[in-house]
Structures are given as structure tokens and as C-alpha cells.
Specification:
This protein is α/β, with parallel strands linked by helices. It contains twelve helices and five strands. It has a five-stranded mixed sheet, sandwiched between helices. The longest helix has 13 residues. The relative contact order is 0.14.
Length: 251
């Protein structure tokens, strides 16, 4: 049976409706906006700061010095720009998560202090294009291709954790396409390795952020990762997974 894990005070402050689960699993209220890859990374004129200033807007009322922790308030200030940074969520002051950012979204992330982008996607052309856009902004870019139909292995988890916890690389933004399945799995590994959460607790947060348990390879990979650290949590049952799939596809 899944246990209940409440979020940290900082996470609760950033997303009170999504991260506290006192009555069991509850999915995010945010709906991921579908868009083609070509549109997801479409170029927009100007850097993040310049573009916002030209429109009389600012992504953060309190500019953050590069290399310092990103605040929950800074993350919330970017929520109106969902098309540029879909499904953006605060994990810690050194780690943010979300979906595929546009070029403008990369600039916005830099504006609030992000220094490194970790891309979990697998499409070579898209990866190459984003790498150019990120490095043009002075962002470090890490490619970590991860598949939904293949278990992530110990090396992939360790590569992610090494970058995500390196003070010289943070703050870090990790993303896949939607920012919920592959990204959720890596954040689950972070919760287990760095925050001392059980697999149950990490999986519950994954579900709250939109993870689809039907992607069994991701769930199994994270479970093996947790087991290697002595965690005794059981895998979600097949009936639980089927029940979740039924809820999603038979509304």
C-alpha cells in the first residue's frame, strides 16, 4: 500500500494544491498542452529579459544572482509563460523540472538563475538544436537520452544525480517532452538518493505531477534503484496500474 508523503514547506509554498496529498493520490490540476516538437522549440526574438522588459513584464520581482538558489516565488513568476516552459515545477532551490522549453523559455530560466539544462529526450535533431540555443545563452547543456519503453539503468540515474547535485552546475532544469514521465522518474531518484524518501513516497509525488504508471519500464527502473539502497517498498500492483489507466482513458 502506498504511504502518504507530504511535501517540504518550500514545495508546498510553491504549489500547495499539487504537492500535499493528505487523502491519497491526486493528480496535478495543470493540463499539459500538446504541441509538435517544431512548435515546442520555435524561436522567439530577444533574450528573456529583453523580451519581457519590452512588454513591461518581468519574470521575477527579485532578480536572482546566477549560481544562487532559485526561490519558489521566482518559479511561480514564470507560470504564466506555460507555452514557453510547460509544466514547470519547483523541486528545490537547486533543481527545477518541467517540459520542453522554447528558446524563449530557456532565456526565462536563465533569467531566474538556472545554469544547467538536462535534456532527457531522444531525438538527435531536437537535441542538437536545443544545445545550440542553450549554449548561446551561456547555459551548460547535458544530454541524457531516456526512453519510456526501456528501464533507466544505474549509470543514467547516477549521471543525472551527479549533475543535479553538483554545486557548480546548479541551479539545474531537467526536462523531457511533457515533464511528467521520464522527468518524474529522475526526480524520483533524486528524492530517494538526496532526500531520503522511500520509493512509495517518491512514486506518490510522481503521480501527483502527472506520471503515468502504465510506463512500467520507468517504474521498474526506479524501483530497482530504490531497492539497491535498501528500500523495501513494493512495486505498485497491476490492478492499481490498470485502475489508473481506466481513469485516464474512460472519463
Amino acid at each position: 500500500m502506498l504511504t502518504v508523503q507530504t511535501a517540504s514547506p518550500e514545495l508546498a509554498q510553491a504549489f500547495p494544491g499539487d504537492t500535499l496529498l493528505p487523502k491519497g493520490l491526486r493528480f496535478s490540476r495543470d493540463k499539459v498542452k500538446e504541441q509538435p516538437d517544431s512548435a515546442a522549440t520555435s524561436s522567439r526574438s530577444g533574450s528573456g529579459t529583453d523580451a519581457l522588459n519590452a512588454q513591461g513584464r518581468s519574470p521575477s520581482a527579485m532578480p536572482i544572482e546566477t549560481g544562487r538558489d532559485v526561490s519558489p516565488q521566482a518559479v511561480k513568476s514564470l507560470q504564466p509563460y506555460f507555452n514557453d516552459i510547460p509544466n514547470l515545477r519547483y523541486v528545490s532551490g537547486r533543481l527545477l523540472r518541467g517540459g520542453q522549453p522554447s528558446d524563449q523559455g530557456l532565456a526565462f530560466l536563465k533569467d531566474i538563475g538556472v545554469r544547467t539544462i538536462i535534456n532527457l529526450r531522444t531525438e538527435p535533431v531536437l537535441i542538437a538544436r536545443e544545445k545550440i540555443a542553450a549554449e548561446r545563452l551561456g547555459l551548460k547543456y547535458v544530454e541524457l537520452p531516456t526512453y519510456t519503453v526501456q528501464e533507466p539503468d544505474a549509470k543514467q540515474f547516477q549521471t543525472f544525480l551527479t549533475v543535479a547535485t553538483n554545486p557548480a552546475d546548479g541551479p539545474v532544469y531537467v526536462h523531457c517532452y511533457h515533464g511528467r514521465d521520464r522527468t518524474g522518474t529522475m526526480i524520483g531518484a533524486y528524492r530517494i538518493a538526496e532526500n531520503g524518501w522511500t520509493f512509495d513516497a517518491a512514486f506518490q509525488e510522481m503521480m501527483a505531477c502527472g506520471f503515468r504508471p502504465g510506463f512500467a519500464p520507468l517504474t521498474n527502473g526506479l524501483h530497482r534503484f530504490a531497492q539497491a539502497r535498501g528500500d523495501k517498498s513494493p512495486l505498485p500492483t497491476s490492478s492499481f496500474i490498470m485502475s489508473d489507466l481506466a481513469k485516464r482513458f474512460h472519463k
